[in-house]
Amino acid sequence: MPAQSPRRAPLPTPHLTVLNTYLKPKLLTRLEKRVRRKTVVALKEMSQQIQETKRRRERLLKDSRQLLEEKYLVQAENQFFVEHLRKNSEQCEKKQEALWKQYAQECGEIERRRQDLASRYTQRNAALRAQLLQGRETQEGLKRQLQDLKTVYKVKEGQDKKIQALEKEREKIRCETAAKDQEAHKQFLREKALVEKELEELHLGQMSAKGLTGKYKALALACKQAHFEFCGSLHRENQQRRKELQHLGQEYRKVEAVRSQLEKQQRLVKEERWYLEALIRGRQRLQAGRERHRAHNPCLKAGGSSKTKF
Prior knowledge:
0% strand, 2 domains, coiled coil, disordered C terminus, 91% helix, Coiled-coil domain containing 121, retrogene 1, Helix Hairpins, mainly alpha
């Protein structure tokens, strides 16, 4: 380890210098030496106290300077914050005034809109009432027409039943006519076979050709006449049935036209009823919207106070 350097002795104070100059240790008595030692100790202590006081004074001066610097900084910061708060306060006041003006304008606009809506609501309500009254009158007229058409509908039902009965009778006549025609044809064939048999018997009995031919012609003419009369009566009956069917067809078309008109009027009645119900619902919604507007409008109650303030 390197050798430690010898500690330097402290410099003598002015008091010790004066004491050493005038009170030399070699010339003093024992009492004076003891007093001198006590004096030296007291002077050293006083010197240390003086040094300590100087150091504390320097620290206090340093702390005082720091406090002054901090004071100046705090004052500068306070001045900045005061200026900032003043500017913010002015901006807030201006913004508050602008907001109050905007609030007053919006309240005035809302009041104008409310009056406009109230006027339009009154006009619309009057128009809806007129339409409702007209719709009720139309509905009453349609009810009367519907009551009148019920009779026509009953007549149409009766005619439908009559047409169905005539259709059944027509089919029955067709069947009977076919059966009668078939029966007449069979009768003609039987008579023809009988005539042929008689002719054959007459031929075997050696009758004259002239008599046989005359009888055959008479029988053929009678059969032809009977067949012609039967076909004529059947044709006349068919003509009569055809005329009846044409008349029934015309009646059926008339009834169909009445039925289509009745259905059209029923659709009109339904549309009128739907229109009236829609008008009633629209009126109820309009009234409900007006009530909600009155309940939730924040400027209706404060309108008077804001106007007096501005």
